Recover the amino acids of this structure.
């Protein structure tokens, strides 16, 4: 949005009569087209009207980001260089940098959750972690081992997974030919891990141990309990 603000200011200060402004920020362009917006930088609309009154025409266009357009890629490159300069002056100081960072983090998590929900893959991971924000916090706290990561994703050397990729003839578990060796079978049912399962379920104190407890009735769709 600030880039659009500066672009309009440059147009008003120039001698050009007709200027096309290209932006890959669809949200900023939609904000400008919204007559009810209260965004502090949306007075671009007023500046544009003033420019029109001065005989200038400013037209806004949206273009897709990172599509091989040299000018767009060059703009991204220069923006990154400017952001890396520790002594660079702020162009806009009406809101604190901490607020900007928090909003970026918030928007990123929302987009992450949307993509996570709409994805057709990762069913096992979604059973453990249906909420992206909670998943991020849990993973940072837990720091999972390679084995735990394999369990959380289902990408591990169990019969069901290997059979899916034709690396095993059968998905059955060694304990019972009628039982599929899945992540849930290993965690909840397989007698080969009964001792380890009992040890985990009765280890104290549970909250301090960081043990992940999954109840049979919570599958699928319920978040893991720590």
């Amino acid at each position: 949005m600030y880039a659009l603000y500066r672009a309009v200011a440059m147009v008003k200060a120039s001698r050009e009569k007709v200027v096309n402004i290209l932006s890959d920020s669809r949200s900023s362009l939609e904000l400008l087209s919204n007559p009810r917006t209260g965004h502090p930088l949306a007075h671009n609309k007023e500046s544009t009207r003033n420019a029109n009154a001065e005989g200038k025409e400013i037209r806004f266009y949206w273009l897709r980001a990172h599509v091989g357009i040299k000018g767009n890629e060059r703009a991204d490159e220069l923006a990154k260089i400017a952001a890396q300069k520790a002594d660079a002056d702020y162009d806009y100081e009406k809101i604190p940098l901490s607020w900007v960072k928090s909003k970026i983090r918030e928007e990123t998590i929302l987009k992450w959750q949307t993509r996570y929900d709409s994805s057709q893959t990762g069913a096992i991971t979604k059973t453990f972690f249906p909420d992206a924000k909670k998943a991020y916090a849990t993973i940072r706290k837990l720091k999972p081992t390679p084995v735990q990561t394999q369990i959380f994703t289902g990408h591990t050397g169990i019969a069901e997974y290997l059979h899916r990729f034709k690396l095993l003839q059968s998905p059955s578990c060694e304990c019972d030919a009628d039982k599929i060796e899945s992540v849930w079978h290993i965690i909840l049912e397989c007698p080969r891990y009964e001792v380890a399962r009992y040890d985990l379920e009765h280890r104290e104190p549970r909250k301090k141990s960081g043990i992940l407890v999954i109840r049979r009735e919570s599958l699928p769709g319920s978040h893991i309990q720590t």
User: Anything to note?
Assistant: The two ends are 42 Å apart (CA to CA).
